[in-house]
Write a structure and sequence with these properties.
This protein is mostly helical and 108 residues long. It has a single domain, classed as 3-Layer(aba) Sandwich (Rossmann fold), CATH 3.40.50. 43% of the residues lie in helices and 9% in strands. Helix 1 packs parallel to helix 3.
Length: 108
């Protein structure tokens, strides 16, 4: 089932709700949308609700192409959320790995 929500806050909360109900749940975002998911991610972590978030890194900030790229989004994901809880962070190297990693993330 696919649901198009109005924003990233709704997307993460719907995925968490599905996880609480026992369904494998995933959502996706890119760039600044991930920042909107932080509170929901903290809630999921503190309540041990499994949810997969796919973060598509863009070449630069939402205002356009940056002068140089970095791993700052990956660093943000590693510490995303409030409190201490385990996170599994998978960083795919190419499109083939992305498909394989999506399968692993939803089945671990």
């Amino acid at each position: 089932m696919v649901v198009q929500t109005e924003d990233e806050i709704s997307a993460i909360n719907m995925a968490i709700g599905a996880g609480i109900a026992g369904t494998r749940a995933a959502t996706a975002t890119s760039g600044p949308g991930l920042s909107l998911m932080v509170e929901g991610t903290g809630f999921a972590g503190m309540n041990e609700v499994p949810v997969v978030i796919t973060h598509y890194q863009r070449a630069g900030p939402s205002t356009g192409m940056a002068t140089r790229n970095s791993q700052s989004d990956l660093r943000f994901v590693m510490h995303m959320g409030h409190g201490e809880f385990p996170r599994i962070v998978i960083s795919s190297g190419d499109h083939k790995e992305a498909i394989e990693d999506a399968f692993k993330a939803l089945n671990c």
